[in-house]
Amino acid sequence: MSEEKGLKKPVKLKADLAAMLGETELPRTEITKRLWDYIKEKGLQTKTENGSPENAGKFIVADATLLSVFKHTNSTSKSGKVTDLRNMKEGETINMMQMAAVVGANIEK
Length: 109
What we know:
By secondary structure, this protein is α+β, with helices and mostly antiparallel strands. The protein has helices at about 15-20, 30-40, 65-70, 100-105; strands at about 10, 25, 45, 60, 75, 80-85, 95.
């Protein structure tokens, strides 16, 4: 069997994400899938920024579990967009487009 590369290559998870997902290593694709499974299972999507959970929409509402993962995120994308969630509070939202930054911030480099 050949070694997985790129997005399918397992990466080491930081402690809070590892605790949430019950794994210490996963490929990025699986991390993202499991985060979305959790978000959908708990109905943590909303159509409006900082809106109430309504299980639909492009914003993700942070519950205590997600907040423990989101709070590690402080990154700048190649286009210069800053995603700093270190002071985020429970009930606040992120745009679903910020999920890549969250995943990246929660894996060991």
